[in-house]
Amino acid sequence: MFLTFLLSQNSLRNAIEHNLTYQNTQGIVKTKPMGDLILRFLNHQTHHQGQDSVLLSQAGQHLDSTDLLVLIPKSYLSYPSKAPNP
């Protein structure tokens, strides 16, 4: 529901659809939609969650969760019942 609320906001939709132009480490200029880059960032973060879990398990430690949504207090995840007027 929160994601639906966010995507209903034109400014966020425009930001996700905005093209970002950057230069990679080889000097090649690339242009990608910001939404694709955000998805890549989130997937990479998931990769590191897996690494953390494996390393801690190998060290004999119990890890309840590496899920960011579990670690964020619920008060930060609430949203207004009505979308604000732009």
Automatic annotation (TrEMBL):
Pfam families: DinB. A divalent metal cation binds at H44, H48. Keywords: Metal-binding. InterPro entries: DinB (IPR007837), DinB/YfiT-like (IPR034660). GO terms for molecular function: metal ion binding. Belongs to the DinB family. This is DinB family protein. It comes from Pseudocalidococcus azoricus BACA0444. The lineage of its organism: Bacteria, Bacillati, Cyanobacteriota, Cyanophyceae, Acaryochloridales.
